[in-house]
Design goal:
about 400 residues, alpha+beta, four-stranded antiparallel beta sheet, three-stranded mixed beta sheet, 11 helices, globular, binds flavin-adenine dinucleotide
């Protein structure tokens, strides 16, 4: 029996529909053949062939796969969730590439864009030939995006955009940046194209988390943006928050992949590593750790599955997404930290995926709403009292 099968204590796999199993196995094979053999190197080097990978993800049909039309697959949310788990089982940075493209950039254009904008960008983005990014966070505006300073002023048929965005995934790669800016009429979304005069990017270096991902600063120095590049249906902060709700859904399932991979690698190690004359998996203290980790993982997978059902039924609410991000990212981090201890000294290198997953999850804990912000969302849902300020 494989380690993954043994870890599926509640036999969740048995209930996968045939189509879903086929999709899951196809993406798992792609991840195993194409991504896993290189991930250590990409992580250590802090670079990855992102354009090439985007096209391969596009050929696999997973970019914006849960959107309808414009070259997208129209898959279910539950299918998208399965894909996120398989990609993040290799690395959270790779899942970020997929989910920023599909859930943040493409979703924003799909939900808030004009017909012309959708026709122009979405088919190429679904193929991975065009890359998108999503610029909401700024150097002085993170958890409180309503305090953003980037602004757009009307000038005839154009807008003049100035300011900057920080920590933007895929930023320097992007052919199109979905940028949120303050206007006299409230917050609005704009599509900034690579090469527009005054629009520059600079990558963030020296990261020790999410190294297999491009993270950039975007700078707007009086960029002239035509009115045709404004997202007509995006009005107010609700629009970017709607896109974030989409992307957080992918994270909830994605992190089950990272945790599963860390745990499986650790079980395999512990059954072959011998100390005091027997495999370390045979010690009760180690088994207690495995019981805790495996049960946490199954609870995370159940949470992800339930949220997939709610989303597919069109009934999911933002605070339910917060339940998932709160529980699953915390659970994944706990699993990776505990698993690292079972590996002993071997756990601190990239030979095993465990600590790489753990340091990646530090980013996932913070981006798309910090753990504390989701705690406050839950507090508000439970008590009816907002405690954000
Ligand atoms: C690798 C990486 C990739 C990213 N990609 C993107 C991207 O593609 N697009 C994008 O727009 N952003 C992106 N982000 C930014 C990310 O979303 C922000 O880092 C996040 O929202 C937190 O903002 P901040 O870092 O400014 O922290 P802050 O908001 O300054 O928070 C610092 C601490 O204060 C806490 N805090 C803040 N307010 C409260 C409160 N009211 N009550 C209690 N505690 C509070 C926070 O929870 C946190 O612990 C990325 C970040 C990283 C690290």
């Amino acid at each position: 029996m494989s380690t993954l099968t043994r870890l599926d204590l509640l036999a969740l796999d048995d209930d996968l529909a045939e189509d879903d199993r086929l999709l899951r196995d196809t993406v798992r094979k792609f991840a195993g053949d194409r991504l896993r053999p290189h991930i250590r190197q990409w992580f250590e080097d802090g670079t990855l062939p992102a354009r090439e990978l985007a096209q391969e993800f596009g050929a696999l049909g997973v970019l914006g796969m849960h959107l309808e039309g414009y070259g997208c697959q129209g898959a279910t949310a539950s299918q998208y969730a399965l894909v996120c788990a398989e990609v993040e089982a290799v690395d959270s940075g790779l899942r970020s590439l997929v989910s920023v493209q599909g859930s943040l950039a493409m979703y924003s254009i799909h939900a808030y864009g004009s017909e012309e904008q959708k026709q122009r960008w979405l088919p190429g983005m679904a193929r991975g030939e065009l890359i998108g990014c999503f610029g909401l966070t700024e150097p002085d505006s993170g958890s409180d995006p309503g305090s953003m300073r980037t602004n757009a002023k009307r000038d005839g048929d154009d807008w003049i955009l100035s300011g900057s965005k920080m920590w933007i995934t895929n930023g320097s790669l992007a052919d199109v940046a979905v940028v949120w800016a303050r206007t006299d009429d409230g917050i609005r979304g704009f599509l900034l194209e690579r090469g527009m005069k005054g629009f520059t990017t600079q990558d963030v270096h020296h990261k020790i988390s999410l190294r297999a991902s491009v993270t950039s600063e975007l700078v707007f120095d009086d960029v002239r943006v035509p009115e045709a590049n404004r997202l007509p249906l995006a009005q107010g902060l609700r629009a970017p928050l709607g896109s974030l709700t989409e992307a957080r859904f992918g994270i909830i399932s994605g992190v089950t992949g990272a945790a599963r991979d860390a745990l499986a690698a650790t079980v395999d190690y512990a059954t072959t590593r011998t100390q005091f004359g027997k495999p370390i998996a045979g010690f009760q203290l180690t088994q207690k750790k495995f019981a805790d980790m495996a049960v946490t993982l199954q609870q995370m997978q159940l949470t992800a599955r339930r949220l997939g059902e709610l989303k597919d039924a069109g009934r999911i609410k933002p605070h339910q997404i917060s339940v998932g991000k709160f529980a699953n990212v915390r659970g994944a981090l706990e699993i990776c930290r505990e698993a690292r201890s079972v590996l002993g000294g071997s756990g601190i290198t990239t030979e095993y995926p465990v600590l790489r997953h753990a340091v990646n999850l530090e980013t996932v804990y913070t981006y798309e709403g910090t753990h504390e912000v989701h705690t406050l969302v839950l507090g508000s849902a439970i008590t009816g009292i907002d405690a954000f300020r």
